[in-house]
Amino acid sequence: MGISIDFDKIRTRISRHKVKNFANAYILPLSEEEQKALNKSDWRRAHEEFKKQQEAFHQKSNDKKNASLYVDIIDNKFLSPSDQITEDMVCEIADINKDFIELMRPKVEMLRYWVQYPEGTRESMKDLQKKMEKLKDKYPDDPSKACDVLFAEMLEQLKTVQQPHRNSLKTAHQK
């Protein structure tokens, strides 16, 4: 998009465990409280509830990571990682990681495409940014509506691009 990027800063940030957990929290199901807030179009409250879930997810993930790597003393009792991490916990972590990896696969494919076709991608992203800014101005208090409109426009654009024109089909068939 023509925006300068500090790759050292990005590399430093994405290497942090907390940053990864906070990013992964976006994949979690909505909490009951966040869903209630969204149902009432209370975006600020929904965001607050998400932030709580994000922090709780990070804390839980960090506690499990630390328990699996380090010895600990709890209530004057020495605990090794094998005392704290159960087979069920390992299976739960593996299942979550599998889900996260599967959800990320299309995003990785998209990034590969962007690298392959940078010029077209840059123009598409600039157009997307303009559309998003217009929708933000048009629906300042309803981000859900703005997203719905954006996705509907994108779907229509895809349909137009992917469907061959009837005239070209007739011409090809007649040949």
Describe this entry's structure for a reader.
The two termini are 43 Å apart. Among the domains are: 8-70, no CATH class; 118-175. The chain has 175 residues and is mainly α. The chain is built from nine helices and two strands, in the order H-H-H-H-E-E-H-H-H-H-H. 2% of the residues are buried.
Sum up the structure in keywords.
mainly alpha; 2 strands; 175 residues
Write the layout of secondary structure elements.
Blueprint (H helix, E strand, L loop, with lengths): L6 H8 L2 H8 L7 H8 L3 H27 L2 E3 L2 E3 L1 H4 L2 H30 L1 H21 L4 H20 L3 H9 L1
Antiparallel strand pairs: 1-2
Structural Rg: 23 Å
Low-confidence stretches: none
Estimated helix fraction: over 70%
Spatial ordering of strands, largest sheet: 1-2
DSSP E strands, number: 2
Q: Could you tell me how far the N terminus lies from the C terminus, measured between alpha carbons in angstroms?
A: 43 Å
Structural class: mainly alpha
In round numbers, the mean pLDDT is: 85
Coarse shape: extended
Order of helices and strands: HHHHEEHHHHH
DSSP strand content: under 5%
> What's the helix count?
9
Largest sheet: 2 strands, antiparallel
Write a compact overview of the structure shown.
This protein has 175 residues and is mainly alpha-helical.
